[in-house]
Design a protein that fits this description.
5 helices; 0% strand; 40% helix; elongated; mainly alpha
Length: 124
């Protein structure tokens, strides 16, 4: 299988890592590879694929799902999002008119806007 493109840069991971469970020093078992797991979740979010289509480089899809579910129930994702929003990275959301184009059909129907009553309202 070809290599999967990863999303996180090292500086982004360094901001995330202290907010995740399973670090050495935390009680209980330490996470096998938190970064690879987070990359798997980001891959799923980016592609919109079902869990079963997760590339094998990320591990067993069921194991990734179970870990995702545990983190969701324990509020890990909420804490992570709260921590990451402190210093947002707007690299991917900068949009200007040079990259936004409307399709020719986006202007609407010929003749302009015309309001049409629904049959339910007309019958009342």
């Amino acid at each position: 299988m070809s290599e999967v493109r990863l999303s996180l840069r090292d500086d982004q991971w360094e901001r995330m890592a202290p907010n995740l469970p399973g670090k050495s020093g935390d009680p209980g078992r330490s996470g096998a590879d938190n970064r690879l797991f987070v990359e798997a979740v980001l891959w799923l979010a980016r592609t919109g694929s079902p869990w079963r289509d997760l590339p094998s480089v990320f591990g067993n899809s069921n194991s990734v799902f179970v870990r995702f579910s545990r983190w969701s129930k324990s509020g890990v994702w909420d804490r992570l999002f709260a921590a990451m929003r402190e210093a947002p990275d707007f690299e991917y959301i900068m949009i200007d008119s040079t990259i936004v184009r409307a399709h020719q059909h986006a202007a609407g129907k010929k003749g302009g806007l015309r309001l049409v009553r629904s049959d339910a309202r007309a019958a009342a």
